[in-house]
Amino acid sequence: MIKLIIFDLDGVLCDTPDMHYETFRDAYYKYTNINITKKEHDIDFNGLSTKSKLTTLQKRDNFTNDISKCIWNYKQLLTQQYINTEDRKSTRLNS
After folding, report:
1. How far apart are CA 57 and CA 53, in angstroms?
2. What is the pLDDT of residue 35?
3. Per-residue burial over 53-85, b = 16 or more CB atoms within 10 Å of its CB, e = otherwise
4. What is the rounded radius of gyration, in angstroms, for the C-alpha atoms of the chain?
5. Which among 81, 15, 77, 27 is positioned nearest to 57, based on CA atoms?
6. HEC profile for the chain?
7. pLDDT of residue 12
8. What is d(CA 91, CA 8) in angstroms, rounded to the nearest whole number?
9. CA 70 to CA 88: how far, in whole Å?
């Protein structure tokens, strides 16, 4: 029996838009050499999944599916690293 379901709209339990922007920007630049500005991300991509962003940008910037997969995988790695770093910061602050 399910006793609890937690549903988080970004910013309720965790505020992660900046993390998603920074990790996506860095991964995208690594494989395309194109910078996504914070303003562009906020207006056009904030709240979309990484795959949705890449579908739009692949058409705009004309890169292959293989590059798209590389960006997606690297963004996931950067996100995990970011979370782990923030967890360590939080642990140090609470000690």
Report:
1. 6
2. 97
3. bbeebbeeeebeeebbebbbebbeebbeebeee
4. 16
5. 27
6. CCCCCCCCCCCCCCCCHHHHHHHHHHHHHHHHCCCCCHHHHHHHHCCCCHHHHHHHHHHHHCCCHHHHHHHHHHHHHHHHHHHHHHHHHHHHHHC
7. 65
8. 22
9. 27
Angle, CA of 50, 52 and 56, to the nearest 5°: 115
**CB contact set of 41 (below 8 Å; sequence gap of 6+):** 21, 24, 25
Checking if the pLDDT of 75 tops 70, the result is: yes
The string of pLDDT tens digits covering residues 22-71 is 999 999 999 999 999 999 999 999 889 999 999 999 999 999 999 999 99
Please determine, for residue 90, whether its predicted confidence score (pLDDT) is greater than 60. Answer: no
Given this model, what pLDDT does residue 4 score? 86
Residue in the structure block whose two tokens are 């991300």: 41
